[in-house]
Design a protein that fits this description.
This is Alkaline shock response membrane anchor protein AmaP. Keywords: Membrane, Transmembrane, Transmembrane helix. The chain crosses the membrane at residues 67-88. By secondary structure, the protein is α+β, with helices and mostly antiparallel strands. The protein has two domains: 6-89, no CATH class; 97-199, GMP Synthetase, Chain A, domain 3 (2-Layer Sandwich). Helices cover 52% and strands 18% of the residues. It has helices spanning 6-32, 34-56, 67-89, 113-125, 158-176; strands at residues 97-100, 110-112, 130-140, 143-152, 182-187, 198-199. The strands form two sheets. The chain has a four-stranded mixed β-sheet with strand order 3-4-5-6, with helices on one face. A hairpin with a 2-residue loop joins β3 (130-140) and β4. α1 packs across α2 and α4 packs across α5 (158-176). It starts with 5 loop residues before the first helix and ends with a strand. The relative contact order is 0.09.
Length: 201
């Protein structure tokens, strides 16, 4: 739950992983397999010559340099900017403010997200059905949403764990006097997750 598109996250990770895998396997093959190493040694001069001829055939206005270098530098600069933007966007989405009333003549009431997080964390940590829990607050399209992640003990049904969390969320709603949107994530065993446990305001 952050401001970066999930598909973009996975696509970048997949492409980077595949690129590193290919480069790593190629280097390993050249170093470990004599046939690959000899083939690389035989083909390297020809490839180098082809690249040199291409650079010579694309001069830039009498400068003696190829415009391909400028094109390559421009493409590299674009990729660097995209990666910097991608990295800078990671981790966003967290917010400290859970609820905020419209300002009136008497002032404005604000509920910090850490208050709800601590209340839920304390309530869930005492439950024997759970082996761990984590609560955080995110801003999703201008609305603060609680994300409650719990790991249920072996033998405990994820559905029962979800109901347990919902019970605590209803108690929090009663305390705050309003319904707080929440996403419940339950894991246990082979990382079983319930995707339908999302509450909307």
């Amino acid at each position: 739950m952050n401001s970066t598109n999930r598909g973009a996250n996975r696509a970048v990770i997949l492409l980077a992983g595949l690129l590193l895998l290919v480069v790593g396997l190629a280097g390993l093959a050249v170093g470990a397999l004599p046939t690959v190493r000899s083939g690389f040694t035989d083909q390297a001069p020809g490839v180098l010559g082809t690249v040199t001829d291409a650079l010579k055939a694309t001069p830039l206005a009498g400068t003696g340099h190829s415009w391909l270098w400028i094109a390559a530098a421009a493409v590299a600069a674009v990729f660097i900017v995209l990666f910097v933007v991608f990295i800078a966007r990671q981790g966003r989405g967290h917010t400290r403010e859970l609820l905020a009333q419209t300002p009136t003549e008497h002032g404005r009431t604000v509920v910090d997200g850490s208050v709800a997080e601590q209340l839920l964390q304390d309530a869930l940590s005492s439950r024997p059905e759970l082996v761990g829990s984590h609560v955080s607050t995110y801003a999703v399209k201008g609305t603060s949403v609680l994300k409650v992640s719990v790991s249920c003990r072996r033998g405990v049904s994820p559905a029962d764990a979800k109901d347990l969390v919902e019970e605590q969320l209803l108690a929090l709603d009663a305390l705050l006097g309003t319904s707080v949107p929440a996403l419940i994530q339950v894991s246990g065993g082979f990382r079983v997750r319930t995707a339908g446990a999302t509450r909307l305001a």
